[in-house]
């Protein structure tokens, strides 16, 4: 059996959908914090089990009879290391053979603040004695949905990325890659995939694409990291999230979100979602 943690999250639901296209529902476990939020998954025949990162006692039971766990990185930045360690410990206790982990593109050398917790988790996995496969995910195109809306309203895309290029792909792309890895039996333990979109783009390029498709004037306005963080706080984002996003933009400027391995397209057997398609879908939404 295959267990997917965070199965009701934005990435997790895509993974479940992709798995259902490749294997039987009865072989899939949706490990979720709130089972009542996964009634739709249960209706598809997927086993729904409570699995709360902050309540380790729920985890071992959730992984009973499971051979492979997809550990989708927790969304709670700052709490990820103990939460992920709880999953690793429970997986070992339950007799799980393999953990597939959604890490960060270029995690070992990443200049992003986000890299710290991913590096710590990768170290914990290496020390676990379990078979491990790493999916080092790049940025999601969906991270720019709010930027599209702001661009239409204010005529500007804001950031601190300078002319750095980001190799973003859709959540669906990354989820399909995860499903492929989870359902293949020929992937050696220790395999690392650096996953990223096929074509990188700058924030100026994002602004130009929004302008071209919307018919409105849109420009990219670059600013220092601390100024961008302050702007995000003005827009109502929590301080921690604002600081993390500004740090990620600064890391983008240094090449921290660019990748050209081609691993993602190879795994899913098709090109990754282009920026133009993402912008078009977002404008229609």
UniProtKB/TrEMBL annotation:
SUPFAM superfamilies, per the entry: NAD(P)-binding Rossmann-fold domains (SSF51735)
A Pfam family the protein falls into: NmrA
Domain NmrA-like as annotated: residue spans: 2-248
Transmembrane segment boundaries: none
Entry protein name: NmrA-like domain-containing protein
Species: Puniceibacterium antarcticum
